[in-house]
Amino acid sequence: MNTLSLIAATAIVSLASTASAQSFGGITHEGSTISLAYSFHNDDEGDPYSENYTKHLTATSRYALGSNLGVAVTFGYVSETWEDEYYSRRHVLDLNPYYSFGNGSVGAYYTVISHHNTDDGSLNDTQFGITADYAANGFGVEFYAGAYMEDGYFNEDTVGIAGSYEINDATQVFISHRRDIDTDGDWTGMLSLGGTYDLQMAPVSITGELTKYGHNDVSFGDSEWNQITIAASYNFGAGAQSIFRGLRAEDFFYN
Predict the structure, then answer these.
(1) Which terminus has fewer CB within 10 Å in the chain: N or C?
(2) Domain containing residue 91: CATH number
């Protein structure tokens, strides 16, 4: 899947599903969200933020299948520039079937990833695991846990948790933590604080996020590895927003 085909798939899934009837064959489109984000980091060496950045383009659509069952489908494209040169790219297709109950849901995910980087060349990666979310009285929580397979071989365990609070109808603040753990038990993680503001004149939201990286040798408190993320999202219908934007590994933000 190249970038052009990804963009076409993004447009087809998000626009066609919204423009069509809301229900077809018992499947109801609940909402879609397209997001474009840029993450700039200093590579733990005081490098210029402008030389180390990752671009994320994602499109997620949610569908109700009946009997409290649903599925979220995400197309994604992630490209990484390191020291002002191309380093890696990923094309992502993520399926997240779930069961809804009250104010929450539990589910599973399976992700197919076409991956290329300058160290290993072209790889075919997969991810799989479980998801959960719950929201009540303005508070929300999201969770995932799973495994990342690189070219058919186990590469790392992945886990993420996020909590959010809606200050008002337009403003949300959140905190999130992602951690990837390799076969030796070594880990790299992200601790993030952010906020999202919904524009009043259009179905668009703007997100800002500050991240501190840590790993098994350096705690978050001692780390000087920082990242700044800016994201813009366009919502169709009720939207399908997630703090994780369908990218369930710290590795999508820095390789």
Answers:
(1) N
(2) 2.40.160.40
- C-alpha 236: how far from its chain's center? 18
Domain that holds residue 231: 3-252
Q: What is the pLDDT of residue 96?
A: 97
pTM score over 0.70: yes
Confirm if 53 and 86 have CB atoms less than 8 A apart: no
Count of beta carbons in the 10 Å neighbourhood of residue 79:
17
Q: Are 157 and 167 in contact (CB under 8 A)?
A: no
If one counts the domains in the chain, the total is 1
At CA 113, angle to CA 26 and CA 154, rounded to 5? 115
Other beta carbons within 10 Å of 145: 15
139 is written with which tokens?
């508070």
**Predicted pLDDT at 23:** 61
As a three-state string, the secondary structure of the chain is CCHHHHHHHHHHHHHHHHHCCCEECCEEEEEEEEEEEEEEECCCCCCCHHHCEEEEEEEEEEEEEECCEEEEEEEEEEEEEECCEEEEEEEEEEEEEEEEECCEEEEEEEEEEEEEECCCEEEEEEEEEEEEEEEECCEEEEEEEEEEEECCEEEEEEEEEEEEEECCCCEEEEEEEEEEEECCCCEEEEEEEEEEEECCCCCEEEEEEEEEEEECCECCCCCCCEEEEEEEEEEEECCCCCCCCCCCCHHHCCC
